[in-house]
Each structure stands twice: as C-alpha cells, then as structure tokens.
C-alpha cells in the first residue's frame, strides 16, 4: 500500500493537484497518513459537504476517528473519490456508482486474475492467427463488401479492446 498521496496519485495517473507547502499534510498514524474532511476536500478538489454526503451514502468510509472524534480518511479514499468523479462525468447515478464500487471491492484473487489473463492472451493469439488467415480474402473484397464486414466487426472489437484494457489496468493496480 502506498502511503504517500503524491506517489499514489502518480501511480494511479490521477488528476488531483499536488499540495503546496502551505497546505495541510494530514495526520500521521503509524506508517499511514490520514486526512480530516477539510484536508481531504482540498486535496481532492471537492467540497467538505461532498465528502460528508459521500460518507453518509457509504461511497467512502473513514479509516478511523481521531481523539477529538474527527473522521480520518486514508490515501485510498483519494483514489475512490477520483473514480466517483469519473463515473459522475460518465453520467452514472450515485446509486450505480455505489454498486460498481462495491463490485470492485469484491475483486477476485490474484491466481484467478492470472488464469483469466492467460486465457485471454491465448484467445488473442488465436484471433491474431485467424486475422492473418483472413487477410488474403479481405484483399479480394470489393470496397463496399469490405466496409460492410468492418462495420459489423468494429463495435465488437472496440468493446473487447476496452474490456482487455480495463482488465490489464486493474491487474497492474494489484
């Protein structure tokens, strides 16, 4: 687990702005940094009310409470907030976001992911062989025929590529 939020943000490719030296840097508890609502809101560029609302909805949860009973959030909450913002931009409702985040939390074991990725890699190799076998036939098609074939294949191929990208990005996060 990455404990420095700048490293975590860089590793995740997130768009949060870095803190300057005048901004709060959170409390250190053991080997992890924790942030109060105001600090988290500043780092994530959202309002304190949004943090409070997401907490009440169960979209984010505090790591622990301070001695003064403040809710303290960890660096992983920053990643979760970025995912929530991305999904909101994609027009997901907060209920859909909550369900999706819950599914992501139930990620399968590393061995199962490795097996699936290996299977996908073998399947991609088979598809590449089939494409090479079809290339001579595609060259003989008339432009109108080729366009019809490609129009039918492109949406399916794009969906497969997006799914593979998602799985590969997800596997590198683990």
Number of domains: 2
| Helix/strand order, N-terminal first | HEEHHEEHHHH
Q: What's the CATH topology name of the largest domain?
A: Multidrug-efflux Transporter Regulator, Chain: A, Domain 2
Name of the CATH class of the largest domain: Mainly Alpha
The coarse overall form would be elongated
| Main beta-sheet annotation | 2 strands, antiparallel
**Percent range of helical residues:** 55-70%
The tally of beta strands, per DSSP, is: 4
**Strand composition percent:** 5-15%
Unreliable residue stretches:
1-25
Per CATH, which architecture of the largest domain? Orthogonal Bundle
Distance, first to last CA = 10 Å
Summarize the structure.
Helix content is 66%, strand content 6%.
Characterization of this structure:
With 174 residues, the chain is mainly alpha-helical. It has 2 domains: 5-105, Multidrug-efflux Transporter Regulator, Chain: A, Domain 2, CATH 1.10.1660; 110-173, no CATH class. The protein contains 7 helices and 4 strands, in the order αββααββαααα. The chain has a two-stranded antiparallel sheet with strand order 1-2. Strands 3-4 form a two-stranded antiparallel sheet. A hairpin with a 5-residue loop joins β3 (64-65) and β4. The radius of gyration is 22 Å and the shape is elongated. The N and C termini lie close together (10 Å).
């Amino acid at each position: 687990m990455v404990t420095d939020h700048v490293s975590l943000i860089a590793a995740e490719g997130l768009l949060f702005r870095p803190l300057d030296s005048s901004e709060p840097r959170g409390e250190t508890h053991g080997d992890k940094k924790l942030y109060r609502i105001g600090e988290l809101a500043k780092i994530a560029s959202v309002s304190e009310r949004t943090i409070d609302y997401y907490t009440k909805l169960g979209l984010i949860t505090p790591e622990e409470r301070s001695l003064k009973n403040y809710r303290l959030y960890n660096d992983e909450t920053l990643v979760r907030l970025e995912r929530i913002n991305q999904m909101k931009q994609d027009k997901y409702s907060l209920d859909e976001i909550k369900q999706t985040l819950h599914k992501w939390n139930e990620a399968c074991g590393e061995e199962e992911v490795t097996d699936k990725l290996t299977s996908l890699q073998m399947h991609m190799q088979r598809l590449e062989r089939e494409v090479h076998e079809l290339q001579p036939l595609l060259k003989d098609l008339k432009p109108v025929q080729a366009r019809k074939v490609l129009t039918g294949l492109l949406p399916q191929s794009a969906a497969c590529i997006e799914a593979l990208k998602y799985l590969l990005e997800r596997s590198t996060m683990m």
